[in-house]
Amino acid sequence: MDMVRKEEISGRLRGIIKNRWRAVVVLVLVAVVGFIGWRALGARSQQSPYQTAIVERGTIVAAVSASGKALTTNIVEITTQASGVVKAVYVHDDDRVTAGQKIAEITLDRQGQQNHAQAWSSYLSAKNSVASAKASQYSLQSEMFSKWKTFKELSESSSYDTAEERGLPQFHIAEKDWLAAEAKYKNQEGGIAQAQAALKSAWLSYLQSSPIVTAPIAGTIGSLGFVEGMVIGSETSSSTSDQTSTSQRVAVVQNEGRPVVSVTLAEIDVPRVQVGQNATIVFDSLSQKTFTGKVVTIDKIGTTSNNVTSYSVNILLSTGSSAILPSMAATANIIVETKSEVLLVPSAAVQTQGEQTSVRVLRNGREEQVPVTVGISSDTQTEIVSGLSEGDMVITGSASTASTQAGTGGSVFGGFGGGAFRLGGTGGGVRRD
Question: Which residues form the YknX-like C-terminal permuted SH3-like domain (predicted)?
């Protein structure tokens, strides 16, 4: 019985000692955590309540940003109005061709043959019109010389020496006949030019209806859309049985010309942009590469839509690229001004109220509001013309804002891996979650 009693007392003593050790461990951990928290809070209390930046000298580039698209300045379409079956295709994509080189051949159907014959007839008629216009000019030229000769003989004869004799009707009639004949002759030159334009148009229409498709310019073939055996044809109107020829694109030819990007500017930016200014261009689909160029044209008339006026600016790229395709979306930054060795501050430090511009400066731990004169600005920086000196410390924001943006989940327990400490259940143990 005494042995049982002794073992019971001994067990209770061991439990008391064990619980005391657990309590000591918990107290030590609490003390460590409290010390770390005190250090962290102390460090925070010593931090400046501001975000600051140093006034430095450097280079600033002011630019105007605008969006737009690539134009098809160096790409020409090859089209045809022929109808039938594609007999042969003589080129492939990326082939080099010369002007007039055969691209494809088409076996014309009945409608295609009729259109081709009609186009040839129109061409011959236009050719005859040019010949007739030239023949009329020769006739008018002969008549002009004849009238001029008649008037010349009258003016040189002794019958019309005096001013009174030159005022007689017959003298004036001869003069007016010559001038009228001369006017008809000169007007006929316009008639010939018109007939020649009609001839050129008829020839182009004939080529469009021709079974032979040729390249209009020299360059590289792309976007080839015809294959052998393919049926191409005229479109039939749904309301009538008439068939009308429509142009179909066979391929495109891209020459060595440099691409042009057309962008749209707001009216507030147009006065800052001038022909010859440099620009950088990025295409949405080619975002890994930046192109350079120069402003070549500025539309200062503009267009208005929904009471908003916009102005078109064309930028000629310095180099071409086969990757640049028509109508690709692009963003251009036009460099309007560049300055070197000027005082610069972050734009966030500059405050404007009415006509007064100022900057908050931190001097000897105290905040001062300093009036300044600013120059040009970039996306992130502003030039300071007067009011500050190199090395001044300007306030760009509040440190509390920065700490809030860094995240509200920060904890003084971060040194322990972010886990929370909990006391165990009835056993009083310590564990980490």
Answer: 343-397
